[in-house]
Amino acid sequence: MDFDPNCVFCQKQPSDYVLENKLVIAFWDIHPVSKGHLLIIPKRHVTQVWDVTDTEKAELVQMIADAKKLLDAKFEPDGYNVTINSGAAAGQSVFHCHIHLIPRYWNKVTKRVGAIPGQFLVPKSRPEFKDLK
């Protein structure tokens, strides 16, 4: 199925897009863990990452790189989490394949939302790592 009328991600409009390529879009997460939190999805409705085509996989990876460039320029984060929750047991709450690109900032408190692995792994202070990217 290319479109699911009951899927909140399938309802996204071009005005919601931050970035777009032939098969993939990126948009701001409505419950961001941090400033600049993006969701990256295939345009085609597909429930799990395991079900995307090889061409979609390539476009998803390219979009991650393009989105990182945009976020680097706009927000200058200190690092990133790239996360895919696949299945309810893994914390997936919208059943349209999506990738979380979460910018991380030193000494910033993250918001607790859902079950995003690694969302609280940023230490308050690790001066020996601050200049590493």
Apparent shape:
globular
Number of helices: 1
- Outline the biggest β-sheet: 5 strands, antiparallel
N→C terminal distance: 40 Å
Note poorly predicted spans. 119-123
Over the alpha carbons, how many angstroms does the gyration radius reach? 15 Å
- Strand order, main sheet: write it out: 1-2-3-5-4
Order of helices and strands: EEEHEE
Binned strand content: 15-25%
Instruction: Describe the oligomeric state of these chains in a short phrase.
Output: single chain
Task: Estimate the mean pLDDT confidence.
Answer: 87
Helix content: 10-25%
Total number of beta strands: 5
Structural class: alpha+beta
In words, what does this structure look like?
Helices cover 17% and strands 17% of the residues. It has one helix and five strands. The protein has one helix spanning 54-75; strands at residues 19-20, 24-28, 38-42, 79-83, 99-104. The longest helix has 22 residues, at 54-75. The chain is globular. The relative contact order is 0.20.
Short description:
With 133 residues, the chain is of the alpha+beta class.
Topology:
Blueprint: E1 19-20, E2 24-28, E3 38-42, H1 54-75, E4 79-83, E5 99-104
Antiparallel strand pairs: 1-2, 2-3, 3-5, 4-5
Give keywords.
single chain, about 130 residues, alpha+beta, globular
